[in-house]
Design brief:
InterPro entries: Ig-like_fold, Pili_assmbl_chap_C_dom_sf, Pili_assmbl_chaperone_C
Distance between the termini: 22 Å
Strand content: 35-45%
Helix content: under 10%
Order of helices and strands: EEEEE
Largest sheet: 5 strands, antiparallel
Strand order of the largest sheet: 2-1-3-4-5
Protein name: Pili assembly chaperone
Amino acid sequence: MLKISVRQDDVELASIESQMLAPQQSLHIPLLRKKGGAPLVVSFVSINDYGGQVPYRATLANHESGYASKVMPR
């Protein structure tokens, strides 16, 4: 991964640059200013097998797991 960002209501709660994760590794990101029950938007950029950057986004609500989807170019 190149970058991880966590936002809530257009406010960035966490941002990590150049974080690499091994297969099956996890990462815990502390959120300092989370407010209310508004959903969190987690964005990250992955590097594919060919070295290309692939952006993903997931919306998390009610403390439930979510699935990341590729962000398609406009």
